[in-house]
Structure formats: C-alpha cells, structure tokens
Amino acid sequence: MEYLFSSLIGYLLGSFPTAYLLLKKIRNLDITTQGSGNVGAMNTFDVTKSKALGAIVLLIDALKGLLSVYLSLLIFPVNFIYPALALFFAVFSHCYNPWLKFKGGRGLTTATGGTALLFPVLPIVWCIIWLIIFLMKKDIIFANAWASGATLVILFSTAEIVFKYSFPQAESIPSLILFSTGLMMIIFVKHLDPLMEILNNKKKILKRQR
Q1: Residue 184: is its pLDDT beyond 90?
Q2: Which residues contact 148 (CB under 8 A, 6 or more apart)?
Q3: Gap between the Cα atoms of 91 and 67, Å rounded
C-alpha cells in the first residue's frame, strides 16, 4: 500500500500545472498554445518576457519534486523506494499532465527539486555539465539534453559514490541505477522534439551556405 500512496503523492503534486494556472490568471494566456507549448519556466519566460514569472514557475515546479520526496519520507518508513517512486511519478505527471490533455513541461526542474534531497550530488554534477555545454553551444535545449545524458553515464561509472551519498540509502546499486535511468529517460524523451528541430534548422542553414 505504501508503494501506491507514495506514487499517488508524487503524481498529484507533479500534476499541479504551475505555468498554465499562473499565466491564465495573470495574463489570460493558455501556455499550451503559446510559444513551444511547453508548460514550464522556459516557455513562460519566452512567452511573457517576464523574469519574475519565469522564476516563480521555476521555484514552484522545483518544490513539486522536493515536496514529493519530503512528504514521502515524512509519512512512510525511511526507505529509498518510497521517495524514489514519489519523485518518478511527480516528474511523469509534470511532463504528461492529466489536467492538460497530457501536455506538460520537460521535467528537469521537478527532478532537480527532488534529487536535491535524495542524492544532491546528482543535480550538482548535472549543473556543472550543463554550464560547460551551454557555454560551448549557447543553446539551453541542447545543454539540457546533453547534461542529462552525460549525468546518466557518470552515474553508471560512479554508482558506488552516488549510492553512498543517497538518502535514504538505496537498497542496492541496481535499484538506484534503475530509478535514475527511468527519470532521465522521461526527461530525454521530452527533449527529443526540440532537439530534432534544432538539428533540422542547422541542416537548413548548412544547405543555404552551400
């Protein structure tokens, strides 16, 4: 029963459509039909050009992940699987929101909020890689995708270290890797479309230059 309830906690918190409700209330805009259609902080800023609104969405979306983990730890026995399930389903419902016809965000902010409690070393590594890639490519989507993929590779190669600093400590290294892989796969899939768009645009530019 704990598995079901921890999953439900994450799913309900993650499904709170922050950007949609905020823009509907303040600007009378449907963010799912504006800009990229993504229900997250980046599209909020792109559509409104407001750093304040983007920051509010970023903060609340991060809190969704953090609260999913925290409440699971508070309610259920201290066991890795419960907060891990809560975070997984928080990210899933954020990305495929049941209240918005399964449209949603890309999951990075919610995942970062939760992993900051579960194993803080992971978001730190992700942020470092993201910064390096962004400085090289000057593209947020590209940096998001590459940082997520590279972080997963690093996790595989340094699983014992991440396992040591996870809280609560995972039952085993394979369970930690399985959870992390599932989380990163959701995020990566949500970045596929914008990545393909970037690649197609680059191909068009190269053709014009020829």
Answers
A1: no
A2: 108, 126, 184, 187, 188, 191
A3: 12
Cα distance between residue 148 and residue 18, in whole Å: 23
Tokens 């903060």 belong to residue: 59
Residue recorded with tokens 């194993």: 119
Does the pTM surpass 0.85? The reply is yes
Distance CA 190, CA 64 (A): 18
Residue 29 phi, psi (nearest 5) = -115, 145
Q: Return d(Cα 114, Cα 134) in angstroms, integer.
A: 23
Question: Helices 108-118 & 81-95, crossing angle to 10 degrees?
Answer: 170
Using one digit for the tens of pLDDT, what is the confidence trace for 121-149? 888 888 999 999 989 888 888 888 888 88
pLDDT tens profile 7-31: 999 999 999 999 999 999 999 999 9
- Contact of 43 with 31, CB cutoff 8 Å: yes
Amino acid 38 reads N
